[in-house]
Amino acid sequence: MSTSLDVRQMVRDLERLVTCESPSHDVKATMRCADVLTEIAWRITGRRPEVVSRQDRPHLLWRFGGRTTVLLVGHLDTVWPLGTLDRWPFEVDGDLATGPGSFDMKAGLVQALHAVSTLTDLDGVTLLVTTDEELGSPTSRAWIEEQARGARAAFVLEASADGALKVQRKGVSLYEVIVGGRAAHAGLEPHKGVNAAVELAHQILAVQAFERDGTTVTPTVLSGGTTTNTVPAHAGFTVDVRAETVAEQTRVDAAFAALRAHLPGASVEVKGGPNRPPLESSSSAELFARAVRLARQLGLPELRGVAVGGGSDGNFTAGVGVPTLDGMGAVGDHAHAEGEYIVISAMAERAALLAALIDDVRAG
């Protein structure tokens, strides 16, 4: 493995990606950014990707040689709408670079390509880049799982807040609880109605009771009723559930399925379910130990691992049984917040660590 990494070129590549805005909901914009990433990758690696279309949305796949042993996973879409650059341009200030999508996660893509360029043997290395991760990966999930199966390791290029690797991610489940009642005049004969808003209150308290230990159950968006003088006939709410283990995710799912109406005459319907399986600590433990050892050998800062509530495409690779280490991207902070930034000096360090991990895993 070569160790030559041009940090100034990495910053130039990052600037090109950040200044090509790519909000998830705008497919044409993500395609333009995919073209920029393709040009950068061609210059760095001499390889062009396979463009994979899923439901008219493009994703990119670089298969550098042979059957996949190590899968690198990233996304180029961001949460920032077109025009954000007009008020918040890409800027470099000393050892920091900022701009929409710089931290989450365009710097991670740059680091991955430069890491690959240092490897003398690319057999078994595959880079997968999606364009819908910030939407929950609705078109790419099955494809990610398909590409991951059989790999020895998956390294996810998500950002790394303050340098911590993500060794555990909670699984995500999303539910909609729909309540039915019966309308009546709120002043003349409220007793003839079945109040869906009151039933909704009972159901919110019921699902809140599903929480325990590290599992969170959070009612989010509420709706219901028609006019101020009508007993509501319909109401509903959505729920965000985060669970550390598959067993907990399954327990909560069964509890939602068992919900029943509290008021006579009311009805309850539940839609939704698990969206992302958890990335359990057992999926990352061995890879994290390798990373700690290799970081020490490379003279890099001591690594630490964190458990987080947010999900990523690493949940999917772990979910199909592939050892997964997340947070291999940029070092910085403030993902999804204006002012997100990356530490420039850490770009080469993390690229070198990724390259060492790739070689270490392939060596068995």
Overview of the structural elements:
With 364 residues, the protein is an alpha/beta fold. The protein folds into 2 domains: 7-168 and 278-362, Aminopeptidase, CATH 3.40.630.10; 171-276, Alpha-Beta Plaits (2-Layer Sandwich), CATH 3.30.70. Helix content is 34%, strand content 25%. The chain is built from 10 helices and 17 strands. It has helices at residues 7-18, 27-45, 84-87, 102-117, 141-148, 196-208, 246-257, 281-297, 314-319, 345-362, and strands spanning 50-54, 57-63, 70-75, 91-93, 96-98, 125-130, 153-156, 160-161, 165-169, 171-180, 216-224, 234-243, 267-276, 305-308, 324-325, 331-333, 341-343. The strands form 4 sheets. Strands 1-2-6-3-7-15 form a 6-stranded mixed β-sheet, with helices on both faces. It has a 5-stranded mixed β-sheet with strand order 4-5-17-16-8. It has a 4-stranded antiparallel β-sheet with strand order 11-12-10-13. A hairpin with a 2-residue loop joins strand 4 (91-93) and strand 5 (96-98). Helix 1 crosses helix 4 (102-117), helix 4 (102-117) crosses helix 10 and helix 8 packs across helix 10 (345-362). The longest helix is centred in the first third of the chain and has 19 residues, at 27-45. The radius of gyration is 23 Å and the shape is elongated.
Number of helices: 10
Largest sheet strand order: 1-2-6-3-7-15
Total domains, how many?
A: 2
CATH class of the largest domain: Alpha Beta
Name given to the CATH homologous superfamily of the largest domain: Zn peptidases
The total beta strand count reads 17
Mean pLDDT: 96
SS content category: alpha/beta
Low-confidence stretches: none
How much β-strand is present in the residues? 25-35%
**Overall morphology:** elongated
Rg result? 23 Å
- At the third CATH level, what is the topology name of the largest domain? Aminopeptidase
Distance between the termini: 16 Å
User: Percent helix among the residues?
Assistant: 25-40%
One letter per element, helices H and strands E, the order comes to HHEEEHEEHEHEEEEHEEHEHEHEEEH
**Major beta sheet summary:** 6 strands, mixed
CATH architecture field of the largest domain: 3-Layer(aba) Sandwich
